[in-house]
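Teaching assistant's notes for section 4

Start the section by putting this record on the projector. Ask students to predict, before seeing the second block, whether 15-hydroxyprostaglandin dehydrogenase [NAD(+)] will look compact or extended. Collect guesses on the board.
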Amino acid sequence: MSVAHKVALVTGAAQGIGRGLSEILLKHGAKVLLTDVNQAAGDKTLAELTAKYDQSRVAFVQCDITKQEQLETAFATAKSQLGGIDIVVNNAGIGDEGDRWENTVDVNLKGTVKATKMAIDNLRKDRGGKGGVIVNMASMAGLNPNPCGPVYCATKAAIIMFSQCWGMNPDVTGNGVRINILAPAFVDTDLVKQQLQKGKDVIRPDIAAMMVERVGIMPVEQVAEALLELVTDESKHNAVLKISASTGKSYQ
Ligand SMILES: NC(=O)C1=CN([C@@H]2O[C@H](COP(=O)(O)OP(=O)(O)OC[C@H]3O[C@@H](n4cnc5c(N)ncnc54)[C@H](O)[C@@H]3O)[C@@H](O)[C@H]2O)C=CC1
Ligand SMILES: CCCCCC(=O)/C=C/[C@H]1C=CC(=O)[C@@H]1CCCCCCC(=O)O
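Reveal the predicted structure now:
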């Protein structure tokens, strides 16, 4: 499936991986609704992307994925402003541990569940949609245990299982909806930089640093290419695409 002229909604799109995913979709001719909880960062990213791409193809709406009504507004905006929805990338995520661990469950798990259910409802052909593809952002940390971020890892493991369960549902597959999962190892974004620099949320920063040393760290663009594969290759359904600087891409 070509992404040209398709409409994508990306969560957590103001910076980091979400911004990179949005940009590769724009480069290949899609229309993109950037969504993010951070209004100021979203406005800045929108201004930068509209300077490079046709401004009728990109828009931003503030959306906290933990808030059902803000998700509803975002999906409605994609339809009214960009003409429909074909691709949903549930990328937004955080890594709080310690006293703030419940934020990580709220955003990574509950927020992704809310957004996935809404995406399925909007894409299903029997509910007025055109079919399409959902990609949920997990992590290698949801597949391989480590002692650094137990709540983060648990939420990412849950995203994989939740997504694959929906992907086995004939009401989803029978109505033109594909669901795939992206599971990167370390990517060069603020999430990793902040955690490693301040040791803020990492329970054993020494071990985290050793893991980064062993596994390496990827540029955002490498993850964006992997997303494009999951979106465009129609044979990919219920796939988990693992990607790491040291071992490259593999499906599980
Ligand atoms: N950086 C890495 O090494 C890896 C990151 N990931 C995942 O990729 C995704 C993106 O991470 P990064 O770009 O690295 O992080 P980042 O911190 O650079 O960007 C995350 C974006 O999500 C937004 N966000 C946070 N909470 C939100 C909410 N409640 N609603 C909407 N937007 C919200 C932030 O404002 C920010 O713009 C996350 O799900 C993360 O868990 C997965 C594997 C590796
Ligand atoms: C969960 C590991 C914590 C390490 C600290 C850190 O910097 C966090 C990085 C995470 C940010 C988002 C992620 O998904 C990153 C973890 C990636 C783990 C890679 C594991 C690689 C492997 O086991 O092969």
